[in-house]
Structure formats: C-alpha cells, structure tokens
Amino acid sequence: MNLAKLRSWLRLYGLLVRTTIRSRMQYKFNFVVGTLLAALVQISEFLMVAIVLDRFGAIRGWSVHEIGYLFAVMTLSKTIYRTFADEVHHLEKYLVGGELDQLLTRPMPVLLALMPQKFRLMPAELLQGGFILSWALGSMMRTGQVGWTAVIATLFIILTGAVILFSIGLATATLGFWTTRIVELQNITEDAARTAAQYPLTLYPKWMSSLLLFAIPVGFVNYMPSLYLLRGEVGPWVLAVTAGVAVICIFASLRFWRYGITKYQSTGS
C-alpha cells in the first residue's frame, strides 16, 4: 500500500470525524445533560449487581470488585469499538437502503469510509466504565491484591478487547453481504455474548463458556486476562495469548470483509 495514499485516507477519515463531532456539539447543553443522565442509568446497571453481591457475598469466588473490573473492561472496550466504528454495527441499513453504493464511489477503502459515518460520541459509557474501573482497581490496590502495574496492563487489555469486539462486529456485519438482514444475528454474536462476558465465565455451563472463548471469543476481552491480573491463576503468557487472539481476529475479519464485499449486489435504488 502506498504510504502517501494511506496518509491521505487517514486525513480524510479525520475530516469526516471532525465534521460529525461539530454537528453533534451544536446543542451543548442537551449533550451534557443527556450524557450525565445516560451515565447514571448505565452505572445503575452495575449497582444492582453490586447490591446483590453485598447481600450474598462473592459469586463462585469472584468478589464484587473483581466482577466490577470485568464489567468495566468490557464496557470500555465496547465504547472504543463503537465510538470509532459504530456504523459497522449498523451496516444493515446501508445494504437495505442502497447507501453502500455511495461509499463505493469514494476514493478510499469502503470500510474506512463507513466507519466515521455518523461518528458516535459515547461519554456516558466512558464515565460509567471509568468510574467502575477506578473503584474496582482502587479497592484491590488498597488490599494489596494488585499493584500499580495493573493499571498499565488494564489499558493494554482494554485496547486488545476493543480490537476483538470490532473484529466480531465486522465479521457479523460481513455476513450481511449474503443475508442482508443481520440484526438478529448481531443480537447473539455481539449483544448477548458481550453481556454474558461481563461476568465470570465460571457462572455458565462448560459448553457456553467454551462458546464464549473459542467460537465468539469475548472471553478474551476481559475474563482470561483477569485470571492472571487479578487472581494469579494463570501465567503472564495469557496476556500474549490475548494479544495473539486480537491479531488473529482482526486479520481474519478484514480478510472476510474483503471477500464479502466482492459478493455485494446493489439494490439499484
């Protein structure tokens, strides 16, 4: 790939992102109030779990702080993915309405043109995930369960998690080139799988935990790295394995996307 062309594509991508952000910030008061209210609603989701844990204690040996860590890492990884590539999750409307045809005419890769469309700011999710992560890590640091290196490792885990979630989303969206309708499938591969992986996989039957590790690898977003980082049950090699899973997932999903787009048939609208 020509380096100058890549820089040109990235500049265009940045321009599209800035244009979308400016349009979203036209009504700043509504944006701020909506963000705060959404953050409160999102935090209440975890508070319900925390109240139950406070009443009955740990679940399968996982403390409320450890489950909070899993919850926050998944939330922040999802936030990064959906901030920069939310329209990948909404590819169906481009396929049904024929809007993908317009992107095919742009002088840049279709995926790069798709990602900044209606760029989505998600400050509520950042507030929610950041608050719960700070609370969980801070509590575990005070008890000596983890050290300061856990902060750096967590940033790495969140980034690799975002790559894995993006890859799952992209692979699912690519199936739309054959099926057109993909929302029901996304409910399984993205929404249900991600929600299940917000909690320890030991809560689920073995077949389901295996599914969430090997078929839809959301377990590598937070659960597997946390076994080492929080509980010391496996070695540091699990972080390298997690990075390897992220690389394999992104490589495979991009190859699948490139193949899938050759099968695209315009609606003619």
From TrEMBL:
<protein>
    <submittedName>
        <fullName>ABC-2 family transporter protein</fullName>
    </submittedName>
</protein>
<keyword id="KW-0812">Transmembrane</keyword>
<keyword id="KW-1133">Transmembrane helix</keyword>
<keyword id="KW-0472">Membrane</keyword>
<feature type="transmembrane region" description="Helical">
    <location>
        <begin position="236"/>
        <end position="257"/>
    </location>
</feature>
<dbReference type="InterPro" id="IPR010390">
    <property type="entry name" value="ABC-2_transporter-like"/>
</dbReference>
<feature type="transmembrane region" description="Helical">
    <location>
        <begin position="150"/>
        <end position="178"/>
    </location>
</feature>
<feature type="transmembrane region" description="Helical">
    <location>
        <begin position="211"/>
        <end position="230"/>
    </location>
</feature>
<feature type="transmembrane region" description="Helical">
    <location>
        <begin position="31"/>
        <end position="53"/>
    </location>
</feature>
<dbReference type="Pfam" id="PF06182">
    <property type="entry name" value="ABC2_membrane_6"/>
</dbReference>
